[in-house]
Amino acid sequence: MRLVLINEEGLAVRKSSGTWFVYLLECMNGMIYTGITTNLEKRFQRHASGRGAKFTKRNPPSHIIAAKPFRTRSDASKAEWMVKRLTPAQKRAAASQWPITENLPKL
């Protein structure tokens, strides 16, 4: 699967190796996991195989809801920290405004 990234101006952009993403992953039981990565496909496969995080080992993922690109790991980590403090409903609402919501990995 090839990801097409859309920036905030609605233009397609290529993913550079330095791009970091905050992503929201929906689990099969409806819970939402928040994480960061430089490779959405690879990270999702690790979660799906039970090797991504303790949380997703206990709560198998079904798909990535949305992702948002950041230029640095520091920026992505700060955004992740803020998103993790939101309720599931607030996370879903925020994700609906994120630039990457289509062509994301799923089972």
Distance between the termini: 12 Å
Overall strand count: 5
Beta-strand percentage range:
25-35%
User: Percent helix among the residues?
Assistant: 25-40%
CATH T-level topology? GIY-YIG endonuclease
Count up the domains.
1
Compressed to H and E, one letter per element, the order equals EEEEHHEHH
Largest sheet: 3 strands, antiparallel
Radius of gyration: 13 Å
What strand order characterises the main sheet? 4-3-5
Just give the CATH class: Alpha Beta
> From the 3D coordinates, which CATH architecture would you assign?
3-Layer(aba) Sandwich
Could you report the average pLDDT, rounded to the nearest whole number? Answer: 87
| Helical stretch tally | 4
Tags for this model:
107 residues; alpha+beta; three-stranded antiparallel beta sheet; 4 helices; 26% strand
Description of the structure:
The strands form two sheets. This protein has a three-stranded antiparallel β-sheet with strand order 4-3-5, with helices on both faces. The chain has a two-stranded antiparallel ribbon with strand order 1-2. The relative contact order is 0.24. It is built from four helices and five strands; from the N terminus they run ββββααβαα. It has a single domain, classed as GIY-YIG endonuclease. By secondary structure, it is of the alpha+beta class. The radius of gyration is 13 Å and the shape is globular.
